[in-house]
Amino acid sequence: MTQKPLSRLGSVILYCFFCCIMNVCTFAQKQTLTIKGSDTMVILVQRWTEMYPDHTKVQFQVTGGGSGTGISALINGTTDVCSSSRPIKPNEIQQLRDKYQYNGMEVRVARDGIAVYVSERNPVGKLTVEQTRKIFKGEITNWKDVGGSDASIVLYSRENNSGTYEFFKEHVLAKQDFAPQTQHMVGTGALVNAIAKDPHGIGFGGIAYATGVKAIALAFDEKSEYVLPKEEAILTGKYPVSRLLYFYLKERPQGDIKKFIDWVISKEGQKVVTEVGYLPTKKF
Questions:
Q1: Quick check: 88 and 67 in contact, CB under 8 A?
Q2: Within 13 Å and on the Cβ side, how many CA atoms surround 121?
Q3: What is the CATH number of the domain that holds 37?
Q4: Which domain, by its residues, includes 86?
Q5: pTM of the full predicted structure?
Q6: Which residue from 24, 80, 166, 208 puts its CA 20 to 30 A from 196's CA?
Q7: From CA 119, how far away is CA 138, in angstroms rounded?
Q8: What does pLDDT average to in each consecutive run of 10 residues of the chain (284 residues)?
Q9: Same-domain check for residues 98 and 133
Q10: In a domain, 128, yes or no
């Protein structure tokens, strides 16, 4: 008995079936790399994962929640990589050592300046670090006391699980508490959006988020130069509030994770840092 050749429609259906099988097999072979932590770094990490040239064997899952949340997830083993806008603490290193017999691995992936934001309608354009401290502690409560209009200052901050919150508290507030009336926002994007709509608001966050708001020029004291959070000022130390951004791992990276991190700190990966609005760890 002679078999009839497949109809054109049958051939198309068979071809689509085999394509689906191949796609499922390829998807199943991919490793999922999870990166969790700093809200400040989410837009940067997402761009890295989008621009990473080798997606054949790895797919990415990127979430925020704060640096502290990311480090906790790393300790608990629920993320491969923690993104953090603050250095890991000694007690967190100890927890990693107790669980994994390893102190964890730190990778410096970018540099950032913490900008102090106000509304574009706010006439105040400069502050000293001491004035900024007094504002967020609630000791200066009216804009007229720092050269602005006669209006109450509205304070916005990140939540206490944020690396930006901890860094700002340590380096600007000298480890003292924020004023009780401070409104704590879930992410930097939410904070910036609130200030953009509030002519009397003030807050702080990573320099890459300065959209629709005005960054204040800061000075170490009244005798120092007032400088904006620009690249040269941050890299030379003229800007008072700058920091490194990190990846943390619970063990030395291998395979696809190592390839990704090597690319992040390479010239091409650091080019992405500049495109997003942060600064590379070094000049290439």
A1: no
A2: 9
A3: 3.40.190.10
A4: 10-111+244-276
A5: 0.80
A6: 166
A7: 19
A8: 47 44 48 94 96 90 95 98 96 97 97 95 98 98 98 96 94 96 93 96 91 95 95 92 96 95 97 94 83
A9: no
A10: yes
